[in-house]
Write the structure tokens for this entry.
Amino acid sequence: MIKYSYKLQKLGFYIALSATVFLLSIAALTAQTTAGNASFNFLNLPYSPKASSLGGINISSMHPDLGLGMTNPSLLHPQMDGQMFIGSKPYFAGIQQYNLFGVKYFEVKNITTGWGVHYLDYGNIPMTDVAGNELGMMHPNDYAVQFSAATNYIENFRIGSTLKFIHSNYGIYKSSGVAMDIGLTYLSPTKLSQASILVSNMGTQISTTGTKQQLPFNIILGWTKKLAYAPIQFSITADRLSVWNHSYFDAGYANTYGSSPASSLQNVFNHLTLGTEWFIGDQVDLNIGYNFVRRYDLNVYNQSNGLNGFSTGLGWKLDRLQIQYANSFFQTNTHHQFSVTYQLKKQN
């Protein structure tokens, strides 16, 4: 009888949490802007090389990765206890992205907690007036500080949530905000497939120099399938599900070169990202991803568009150290990302 009552309590909690997520999602959907018009868009950048190598986003991979866990908190797992993640990603003109994460597991409560800092540094930029006169230098940057927690809910389900404080500093223009993410992950009894849903960036600006804007709210679905007799798993991720058409379209460019807006079928594919992970023993993994909307946005008329949308990566795992590398293709340019994960606490 006590066991039955406990199950009812857990079921009631699950229903209440699901209703809360649904209501928050509906509230956010009613206030959404179109693609690119939200504030704090740096939150959409992939935190880890694993995510970058799988097309820029993945919330369902069955290969433990702290960077993925800080994107989707329901992927945080007790086996990450004591891990420390440090990552760097250089962009053009000296712009740098830095990520720092850590995990602590509380066995008595069966809760895995994580903390993280995401920092985007734009370097030194001249500050000018409307006439172009230099007024000095500014050092613009974005950062988010987050705290996450995850636990088993019912059999084969994990649930997690993240709270974030966000700040942007662009010279005299500053903005702060708070946001929340909620993720739910289901692992099949065979452990050969895993599905996740993530509702991210539910929140608001709490201060701003200019007009108040919406946060980059996102609803993401992900599914990963692992082959039973081969060390390979495949993922498909659908994101930005709150906006039907989130691709970039320049009407002036279209009139000049005769291009047209994305078709309905193209809009469907523009929500999808594909990823493949190939594991060579217990130490090495090779990854490849394809992001449909990235290729669509970057393809230029009458130019070689090469590997736009593709990304690749490599992971190397030692006893207590894991090194990851990824690159993403943008026209003739390649963006590289690196990370090191160290196990501070030796696992049994």
